[in-house]
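Could you show me some protein's one-letter sequence and the numbers that encode its backbone in two labelled lines?

___
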Amino acid sequence: MVNRSLVLTLFVALPLFVFGCSSSRGLQSANSGDVPDWYLNVPQDPNFLYAANSQVSQDMQMATDKAISAGRAEIGRQIEVRIQGLQKRFAEETGTGNDAQLLQMFTQAEKNVVSTTLNGSRVKYQKIMRDGTLWRSYVLIEYPIGAANEALMKQIESNNEMYTRFRATQAFKELDDSVKNHEK
């Protein structure tokens, strides 16, 4: 009876051990300090914008999706960002001479909004590894500057087209008002 349970335990445990060892093949632990060079030294190229990002999750795909999304947001901030900021400073001195007490308070709040289309952005490099019990995904997002310039030109053309339509509408309204005034 003891031999059967020992054999059964080995029969169940051995495949789990082998599977557990084989599932980590090709993966490294973030504790090893093996952070990709392209993450630490983001490439510089006059033809591309780059953004490196790293995210963690209990789910490997979620870590990758988060890193890609954050990397693309960084590319968007490099292209266009609207920043709203608020700073408040308060200073008050009470008392006189050596008994004076200076009270100061400084508050700063900042909000960044990115809204742009990144046609042509792609993941150039990716590295996934275990970070303790979590998955860590490193990504390098690449965006061709030619695509950024093309998107900017389309935006300018669209704005010019909208402005022209607005002016045409104003001109027709003025003409219509003028005709109505003349008829009166």
Observations:
- Residues 1-26 have pLDDT under 50 and may be disordered.
- Helices lie at 2-23, 37-40, 60-79, 145-183.
